[in-house]
Specification:
With 143 residues, the chain is of the alpha+beta class. The chain has a domain at 37-129: Sandwich (Immunoglobulin-like). Helix content is 17%, strand content 45%. It is built from one helix and nine strands; from the N terminus they run αβββββββββ. It has one helix spanning 2-25; strands at 37-39, 44-49, 53-62, 66-73, 79-81, 85-88, 91-99, 105-114, 119-129. A five-stranded mixed beta sheet has the order 2-9-8-4-6, with no helix packed on it. Strands 1-3-7-5 form a four-stranded antiparallel beta sheet, with no helix packed on it. The mean pLDDT is 83.
């Protein structure tokens, strides 16, 4: 009977620990700021094929009306913002477009975002992959 009680107690402790870890580390879609602004991404990353493109929406959340200015540093010819200066009342989506118009490789830069109360710098990583595969598959049978 003692082993059964110990097993049940350890099971409960393990379940509580798992729930606590999920609550602590579960990714949040929206960060509500205590002051300034919040973002739904801490890192902007895209992997695309050469000659193609992709985009994502950066959500900016504020507690009160603020003017936001955004500037790309280092990736001006590969990453585009649909707006650079705008006002946010409570939240706004900003479209960020990635272009694969360069040679294959990894390109790194940052997005600087500034408001009346605070500023943030977000790393931006763009990986452009080659259209052609780098490996060959042989289907020859050898005996």
């Amino acid at each position: 009977m003692n082993k059964k009680k110990a097993f049940i107690i350890w099971g409960i402790v393990l379940a509580v620990l798992i729930v606590a870890l999920i609550i602590i580390f579960y990714p949040k879609n929206q960060i509500i700021p205590s002051e300034g602004f919040g973002l739904n991404y801490a890192l902007l990353k895209s992997v695309i094929k050469q000659g193609e493109g992709s985009s994502l929406d950066l959500k900016i959340t504020t507690l009160k009306k603020e003017e936001i200015k955004m500037e790309l540093i280092g990736l001006e010819s590969l990453v585009y913002l649909n707006e650079k200066t705008f006002e946010v009342d409570t939240s706004k989506l900003v479209r960020i477009s990635f272009s694969g118009g360069a040679s294959p490789g990894v390109y790194v830069g940052s997005l600087y975002i500034e408001s009346n109360l605070s500023n943030k710098t977000i790393p931006v990583i763009l990986e452009i992959q080659s259209k052609e595969a780098y490996f060959a598959v042989s289907l020859e049978e050898r005996f």
